[in-house]
Amino acid sequence: MIGAFISFLNNTLLNVALPSIMADLHVDTATVQWLTTGFMLVNGILIPTTAFLIQKFSVRRLFLVSLGLFTIGTILAGFAPAFSILLTGRMIQASGSAIMMPLLMNVILVAFPIAKRGTAMGMLGLILMFAPAIGPTLSGWIIEHYDWRMLFHFIGPVAVIIFFIGFFLLKDKKEKVNIRLDSFSVVLSTIGFGGLLYGFSMAGSVGWSSPQVYLTIVIGALSIFWFVRRQSTLQQPMLNFKVFGYPMFTLAAIIMIVINIAMFSGFMLLPIYVQTLLGISPMNAGLMLLPGALVNAAMSPITGKLFDRYGGKILAISGLTIVLVTTYLLSNLTFETGYYYLMTVHAVRMFGLSMVMMPVQTNGLNQLPASFYPHGTAMNNTLNQVSAAIGTAVIITIMSTREKLYTNQLIAEAGGQPSAEMQQQISMEALLGGINDAFLISTFVIVIALILAFFMKRATPSDDNIKIGTGKPIKSKSLETR
After folding, report:
1. Taking CA 468 as the corner, what is the angle to CA 464 and CA 471, rounded to the nearest 5 degrees?
2. Which residue ranges traverse the bilayer (predicted)?
3. From CA 188, how far away is CA 224, in angstroms rounded?
4. Which spans in 57-148 are helix H?
5. The Cα angle at residue 51 between residues 47 and 55, in degrees rounded to 5
6. How many C-beta neighbours within 10 Å does residue 265 have?
7. Computed from CA positions of residues 272, 278, 282, 283, in that sequence, does the dihedral angle turn out positive or negative?
8. What is the C-alpha to C-alpha distance for residues 215 and 195, in angstroms, rounded to an integer?
9. What is the rounded distance in angstroms from the CA atom of residue 19 to the CA atom of residue 28?
10. Of 396, 424, 269, which Cα lies nearest the Cα of 337?
């Protein structure tokens, strides 16, 4: 968990530092964005392979390899003399980070009995939310007082210490497992998930009509279709899609996809709104979002214990209701909306999300038999990556489309030739309208997740030797060889 904490913290540390890196290494905005896009792509490409890695290797070996890669990437990036070296270090970091999250979730599923699993997942949620929460604020302080390289120099020594502690304390041993990785599946997975992530992540900046968007999305979708078909024919699939034969896991996956698409409206739109329309500084914008992230982090262990006691359904319905109401409130923003009002609404919204994210995922994973845990955690993390990219692209597209529509309407109302001063006012009003409409669409998306939550049932582990959906024994030794 300590290793995962610095890994997740690193994900958001760099965002505030991008302007400083641009100036120091003499690169433009499109180039420097690859520090974020490249990190996301490496994660999306490697996470699907983690099911195989967890089955093949011991926790000790995977932990040391993942943290070792992360440490090497951090040190390389910190001393990078050119942007290409910095990007290389960043992508090596990502290769270690991609293994860490599914590995940690699998350890929790194996190490804790089902009655205590919610509490353990709640602690994981604390790390997941607290690390990214303090990232932008900590980064802003470091950039204000030191060079951007200090972001890596700060993380590097901590990573080295954790690596050596893990080297001496972790004693996990694993018998040799006779399992081979299908290389063609890796190629299809890389092209498929990499194409989808790249296409959707670029849609917000270059538009949906760009060939690099729609071609990569189409190629990615076709590759994933081929990848899924191939997994069904393999005796030892790289990523076993039979996890979707378990109804509670499938329901949890759908709810999480819907939530990821909707929740990124707050993360993307609120900073745009407060900085562009209200004139609030980036540092204060980050501070405005901080209480919500801290509330989410603090609530994670509590909701974990509540999950163990009451199950996920009541938590999901209550949380999604709160998210629904607060998202609707954010669809009625004005030029006079107060700073502390936004802070409060965002904090309450994140409070609602804390009752949804981990309980829904844990309930879904609880229905899987132990042999499917690596595939379930890898599938969840892959879907989270893809749906987050899709959500960001869709929300930005809705905002931009509605902004253009409002601009044309307001120009027509002004007689077709507004003055320079009026043009500025029109652009601000159009942007406000686009942001409000994007939040409104997010509200309707959350309604879908809320309806689905009513179908949740408290899940219990399934037997490997029970045929999915029938409760009847099957003749083969395991579901994976069936």
Report:
1. 85
2. 32-55, 62-86, 92-112, 124-143, 149-169, 181-200, 212-228, 249-273, 285-302, 314-333, 438-456
3. 7
4. 59-78, 83-111, 117-145
5. 140
6. 28
7. negative
8. 9
9. 9
10. 269
DSSP line for 366-435: HTS-GGGHHHHHHHHHHHHHHHHHHHHHHHHHHHHHHHHHHHHHHHHHTTS---HHHHHHHHHHHHHHHH
Residues 17-68: tens digit of each pLDDT: 777 888 888 887 667 777 877 887 888 788 888 888 888 888 888 899 999 9
Instruction: Please report, to the nearest 10 degrees, the dihedral formed by the alpha carbons of residues 419, 425, 427, 432 taken in order.
Output: -160
- What is the Cα–Cα distance from 427 to 407, expressed in whole angstroms? 6
> What is d(CA 243, CA 369) in angstroms, rounded to the nearest whole number?
9
Measured CA to CA, the distance from residue 348 to residue 243 in angstroms comes to: 34
Are 29 and 88 found together in one domain?
A: yes
Q: How does pLDDT run across 178-196, given as a tens digit for each residue?
A: 778 788 888 988 898 888 8
Return the amino acid letter for 133: A
Residues 293 and 415 in one domain: yes
Q: Are 19 and 42 part of one and the same domain? A: yes
Contact 101, 70 (CB under 8 A): no
463 to 72, 231, 246, 429, 430: CA distances (angstroms) = 41, 22, 11, 58, 56
How many CB atoms sit inside 10 A of residue 90's CB?
A: 23
Tokens coding 388: 């987050």
Domain total of the chain = 3
The runs of H, that is alpha helices, within 273-372 are: 282-310, 312-329, 339-354, 357-366
* CA 329/CA 401 separation, integer angstroms: 21
51 and 161 together in one domain:
yes
Answer yes or no: do 213 and 265 share one domain: no
Domain carrying residue 437: 242-482
HSE-CB at 192 with a 13 A cutoff on CA atoms is: 22
Distance CA 158, CA 253 (A): 34
Three-class DSSP category at 466: strand
Domain co-membership, 298 together with 401: yes
